[in-house]
Amino acid sequence: MGGDQVTEGLRVERADGVVTVTLDRPHRKNAVTGDGWADLLEVLRSVRPGEDRVLVLTGAGEDFCAGADLASTPGQTTHPLGDTCLTLHRLPVPTVARVDGVAVGAGMNLALACDLVVASDRARFSQIFLKRGLSLDFGGSWLLPRLIGLHRAKELALLGTIVDGARAEQLGLVTGWSHPRPSTRPWPAWSPSCAPRRRSRCCRPGRCSTTPST
Asked: Is the pLDDT of residue 114 over 80?
């Protein structure tokens, strides 16, 4: 994929070395369908190191992502969510999540899979899986203990606690938060002119230097 692109539920813009990927289903709080995960995987695989310097992931409207849209594919048991997670972890350019509003379930873990997470004061994070009778996915069970420690991770996973932007920063889930919303360029140091051509495998405190196997 090259240049600007629009698919159902996803917008991709390239400008000055910045690839901006916008989840674009605001009527569903940007919940991602099975086809949407496949489209996102294709976009991630299309990133061109050297030409593309940084990838920014965000959501349209008032929310980041409400996770997987279970209602869109009733009975579907297979989708490329795992491959999408691993591909995001292994991207050879820095990745930034710009979070406003809801980021729950796979949507929360999608944000956490990025190297930097910048949240607004409206951001709300939750491992909402238990309320749907599901186990954590999109690498959440691997990421959370490494980011915030085992006991905090258990609290979020077993209670489905809702965490706002300020609390998320205290816990170490986000790099920073802003009022009222993150700007279009979410972190001053991460402009195309100064983003490294290749990122370190361990980009944030608390992040393991390896990637999850599932």
From this structure: yes
